[in-house]
Amino acid sequence: MSKKLSFWSIYFLGMNSIIGSGTFLLPQTIYKDMGVLGILVLVTSALSMGLIVTCYARLAGKFDESGGSWVYSYHAFGKFAGFQVGMFTYVLGCCGTACEIVAFMTTLKSYNPIFGNSGVKLTIISAIILLFLVVNYFGNYFVKIFDNISSATKVFVVIFFIIVGLFFIQKDNFEPIIPNYVGNSVRGFSNHFSEAFSVTFYMFGGFSLLPVAARKMVNSKKNLPRVLTVIMLSLICLYSLVMVVCIGILGRKLVSSHVPVADALLLTVGKWGYLLIIVCMLVGMIGAAFAQSYDATMLPASLSLEHHMLPKWIGKKNRFDAPIVSMIITYVIIFMLTTQSYLFLVSLVVLASFIQYLPSILSVIKLEYQKQFGNRTKAIMGYVIPGLALIVSMYLIISFSRPALIIGFIVIIVNTILYCFLRRRLSMK
Fold first, then answer.
1. Residues 6 or more apart from 108 whose CB is under 8 A from it?
2. Neighbouring C-beta atoms of residue 123, cutoff 10 Å
3. Tens digits of residue pLDDT in 298-330
């Protein structure tokens, strides 16, 4: 029998989905945009994301179906909205996985330039994807083992870095608080802030993929809301401290550091600390990529088997209860996406996240208005928090690049054509 994921397995799966390359690589990008104020941007992003997580927790407490955002949109706004959100959630999972794999190769290249060779790079990426496919093939049991090990490794290395780094912080590195190029004008400050804000948003992404595998979890209606809350509280503490330590140790050197967490330990404890962080970073990135790919493979199966919005053969499962056809399709797409740059994939992830956050937040408002949650809640839970979350999500629009917006528009058109075609074909059957 397929064993379901317990509370702590869900927690580790969530931490694994979220703690990845952004934790180890993006402090440099945030500092470059906002300097020391990057810490404030990070906290602001965490609080903003907390509003969205609250909406997801509310919805997860009502629905125990696999699918996450698309299921919420489906029940609130109908099949077409659900299908569009579902496909963007799928894009999010694929892009997120590819992003972590590209970051993995970037980290390897920073250690040894030979990993930048196209042949070597292609071989390693192929091996990673094959490993994911094999682990996923054997179902939840091996998923739990792989996930728990990589999650524990990441949490350990982040806590280790924070504890050791706090002893080497230098106060002078926190000056000036606002760099000259940021504070010259209101418009300049706004542009830099929005750039940093969108990057930090990526660091908290991944939580929305958790409800995709709701049916794989023990008592998901109870455990998912609790897990989402605990995960966000954990991340706010860990990310803020990592940023403080990176700035406190590297100072202005952070601008030119491609692996800031590793460089900070190299500067403080020496080569062994650098190598330890590099190894743990690689494990962490692989763990995040695997967790996101696991959730991504579940989504087409959910669309196919539970709501018949995709052909039945896409959701076909093997004897270990793993959606084998969906897995193969997903990993082929991920392999193709790994040809893109890291920051471009980050922008696609943030765009896909926005497109699934928006209808999920609106779903809370609509279902609350229709009294679908069983008992009438206070206005702050039913309308105020979703309203604020909606404002935060809309703010992300100004940070999207033109290529990302064009790709998003193309995906919407393709999804619409696919939906009309499949609906007609399935209705004929």
1. 115, 124, 282
2. 11
3. 778 777 776 677 777 787 777 777 788 888 888
Tokens linked to 414: 């393709």
Tokens 């418009």 sit on residue: 187
CA distances from 210 to 148, 166, 201 (A): 15, 32, 17
Asked which of 168-182, 217-231, 242-256 is least confident by mean pLDDT, the reply is 217-231
Identify which of 403, 359, 291, 343 has the alpha carbon closest to the alpha carbon of residue 5: 291
| pLDDT score, position 249 | 92
Q: pLDDT tens across 93-144, in order?
A: 888 889 889 888 888 887 788 887 888 889 999 998 888 888 777 766 666 6
Query: What do you get for the CA distance between the two ends of the chain, in Å?
Result: 33
Q: How far apart are CA 79 and CA 5, in angstroms?
A: 28
Gyration radius (Cα) of the chain, Å: 21
User: Looking at residue 245, what is its pLDDT?
Assistant: 92
CA 344 to chain centre: 15
What are the residues facing 317 on neighbouring strands?
323
CA atoms within 13 A on the CB side of 14: 28
Q: Are 231 and 8 in contact (CB under 8 A)?
A: no
DSSP string, 261-283: HHHHHHHHT-HHHHHHHHHHHHH
Return the structure tokens found at 281.
């970073």
**What percent of the chain shows pLDDT beyond 90?**
2
> Which of these, 322, 397, 417, 325, lies nearest to 354 by C-alpha position?
397
Please report the pLDDT score of residue 2 as a whole number. 47
Q: Report how far residue 244's alpha carbon sits from residue 221's, in angstroms, rounded to the nearest whole number.
A: 36
- Between CA 404 and CA 394 the distance in angstroms is 16
Distance between CA atoms of 202 and 378, rounded to whole angstroms? 31
Q: How many other C-beta atoms are found inside a 10 Å radius of the C-beta of residue 60?
A: 26
Task: Write down the pLDDT at residue 380.
Answer: 56
Per the model's pLDDT, the better-predicted residue between 179 and 74 turns out to be 74
In angstroms, the CA 268 to CA 169 distance is 10
Which two structure tokens, joined as six digits, stand for 7? 């509370």
CB 94 within 8 A of CB 333: yes
The yes-or-no verdict on residue 211 having pLDDT over 70 is: no
Q: Are 24 and 278 in contact (CB under 8 A)?
A: no
